[in-house]
Design a protein that fits this description.
Order of helices and strands: HHEEHEHHEHH
Strand order of the largest sheet: 1-2
Mean pLDDT: 87
Radius of gyration: 22 Å
Shape: elongated
Largest sheet: 2 strands, antiparallel
Low-confidence stretches: none
Number of helices: 7
Helix content: 55-70%
Length: 158
Amino acid sequence: MSAQSNAQRLNVALAAGLADWLDGVRVEGERLYDEAGRNFTGATRSGLYSEAQTTADGAEGAVGSRSPHAYFVHEGRGPGKPPPYEPIRRWVEGKLGVADRLVFVVTQRVRLKIARFGTKGTPFLQEPFDRRTPDLVPTLSQSIDRAFEGAALLEVAR
């Protein structure tokens, strides 16, 4: 086995360990999101992902949501201009059960209230990320141990 293949093997092990760790963050984030009771359309929760890949120098990964409004759910929103009409309308119809002629009026009031006071975020990914950070190095170590189990790591050149 060459030194290059050992480096590649290490990167693959790092990516696998990172993927395991990030997936744990995602699963715990899903649970926290559900407990917060903010899930109406399912777009933020169904858009949650975790991924990791090898790089030339090791591995990199991410955990997040592909939903366009996930940032505002997670971080909240300060006062300022009103949010877009359509996502708020869908929320008003589904979550509040408002229908027919009242939809426009209620949607506008919700938008104006958000513009005036902002919204509080639900850090459904930050909390599990912070809580699981101490487990990252042990998770990576276990992945590396599995990848190199029984393998000679040092090769002597002739």
